[in-house]
Amino acid sequence: MIDLNKLHIFAVVAQEGSFSATAERLYITQSAVSQHIKDLERDLGRPLFQRGRRGVTLTSHGEILQGFARDIFILVGRAEAALTDVEHLTEGKVSLGATPGVAVYLAPDWIQRFRGRYPQLTVALQTGITDQIVNGVLAGRLDMGLIEGELDAYQDRRLGWRELEEVEQLVVVGTHHPWVGRQSIQLDELTGQSMIMRPPGSQTRTWLDGAFRTRRISPKVAAEFDNLESIKRSVSQGVCLTILPGYVVRSEVGAGQLAAVPIEGAPLRRTLKLVWAMDTFFSPVSQAFLQALSVDYPTLKGMVPINQTSSIP
Question: What is the pTM of this model?
Answer without folding.
Answer: 0.79
